[in-house]
Amino acid sequence: QVQLVESGGGLVQAGGSLRLSCAVSGISSSLNTMSWYRQAPGKQRELVGIIFSGGNTNYADSVKGRFTVSRDNAKNTVYLQMNSLAPEDTAVYYCHVHFSQVWGQGTQVTVSS
Known about the structure:
- The structure is a single chain.
- By secondary structure, this protein is mainly beta.
- Helices cover 0% and strands 50% of the residues.
- The strands form two sheets. A six-stranded mixed β-sheet has the order 2-10-9-4-5-6, with no helix packed on it. The chain has a four-stranded antiparallel β-sheet with strand order 1-3-8-7, with no helix packed on it.
- The chain is globular and about 40 Å long.
């Protein structure tokens, strides 16, 4: 059974940083394309960043230069490093096995102005 467990969310002031973690079990994160999505109240879930099985990454324009997706193969964990956070980054952030129906439970990120 594939499970994704996110952690690291919280309340941070604008300009601050957070690192989200996604602990993966049941599959190897290094052999799969993994992604981070977010959903703000009243908005659709949107792709934030993706790391392909080969290691390449891609990001939404709104977070380029501020967010970084990485993974630790030994820990089977995927990360989302978020810097220069702004109030518009406030959302529930989800880890996802891309090209599948597998999602984590989400972690709340709130950025105060």
